[in-house]
Amino acid sequence: MTSKIKQILRHPVTHFNVLVVGFLFIIQSMHTHAHYTMSLDADSYVRNFCKKNLEKCERIISNFD
Known about the structure:
Number of domains: 1
Radius of gyration: 23 Å
Shape: rod-shaped
Order of helices and strands: HHHH
Strand content: under 5%
Distance between the termini: 64 Å
Helix content: over 70%
Oligomer: single chain
Largest sheet: none
C-alpha cells in the first residue's frame, strides 16, 4: 500500500497537478487580498467616494430605482 502511494507521489503528473493547484491558490490569495485591502480594487474608489459624499451617492442610486 505505501509503495503504491510513493509511486503516485513521485509521478510527474502528480507534480504538475500540485504546481497548477498551487499556482491557482497563489493567484486567488492575491486576488482576495486585493479585494480585502481594496487598494487595487476598482470598486474601492466608488466605495470610498460614497463614504465621503453620502448624499450625492444616495441621489444617484435613487435615480436608478
